[in-house]
Structures are given as C-alpha cells and as structure tokens.
Amino acid sequence: MDGGSIAVMVVLVLIALALLAALVRSAGERGQRNAERFNDRVPFYVAPRPDTPPPPAHEPLLRLADLWQFRAAGIAYESRNGNVSRSSIARELKPGMSLRLRREPQNEFDPDAIAIYPVELEGGADLDMAFVPKAVAALIAPLMDRYAVMEAHVMKVVLNGPHDHFVHVYVEVRMTAPPEPLPPKPPRVRRKKLAADETRKEVEA
Fold this sequence. Notes:
Blueprint: H1 3-41, E1 44-48, E2 65-71, H2 86-90, E3 98-103, E4 114-117, E5 130-131, H3 134-145, E6 149-159, E7 167-177, H4 191-204
C-alpha cells in the first residue's frame, strides 16, 4: 500500500470520527430538549410529609401530601379584575414572592377553582393573575373548604419569548395548618335488616 492510499484512509477515518462525534452531541442535545419538554408538561409534583408513616394499601399517598409544586394555569388570558393581561403581571414576579390563594366555588368552569393573586405587587391583591391547575385544585380545594391554611410563593418565572403570553410561573403551595376533621359518618344499616324491622312492626301492629 502506497503512501497516497494510507493518507486517504487516514482522512476517511478522521471524517468518520467527526461525524460520530457530531451524532453523539446532537443526540445529547435532543435528549436535553426532550427532558425540558417533559418537565414542562408535568402539571404538578406532590411531596409527602416526611414525618408520616406510609399509608395502608387502600389509602392513596396523595392524602398525606402537604406540598404542591406546579405551573400556574390561565396566564395567557386577561385579568377579570382589571384591563391588564395576566402575563404582563407575571413578568413582574420574582422568585420567593408571596401569593394568595382564593377559592371560587361558584366558578362556572370548575367548582374546585382556586385563583392566584400576586399580593406583593402594587394592586396585586385585586388582580387574579392565574389559577391553580385543575388536577391540583381538585386536591387542594377540599382542604381549603375545611379551613386548611395554605401558603404559596413563586418558585421561578420562565420567559420563553418577547411576547407577553410566553410566560410560565411555577408555584409552590404548602399547607401550614391542617383542615378540620370530617364529621363522623352515620352507621350503615343494611337494607335487609330494615326490611325485617318493618315486617316485625307490621306483625306486632
């Protein structure tokens, strides 16, 4: 094999190595983008209390949760309490800012609706900036209806573009006081026993 053939083979090997490195780098970037999209689609995360024992097999783990982390919903629309877009309000938020949760049981779209108010912004106590996602509100609303105390704050604000509607606000809600206990259920009486009691009363009469 002459020197020219060896040089050609070396060039081909180098080209193949460069292509392989480019493919590996592209796969890594694509995997990172997919992971970011997946994390963006996850509606909420529920953390169980560390001081509680694991529930019995028939008890769902979500009932032991007192911490919720989620992306706020409804920011792309205008606030109902003022002529201002919710996304422009969200752009002013900073991580750590306190938020107020307000139940809306009369909401026409969802009886479990919980509105989010940016109370630390000027006039924010009267501006509904967003809502708790429906799946999370279904967990938190029954607790709030039983007077559980919830504290909320901004985790992070993500700006995905120059326009107002490209804003994502991630919120953390923690239950700081438990709800009032549910009233005890009345004893369950079997239908057959009721029918037997009624028959006995008719015979005695």
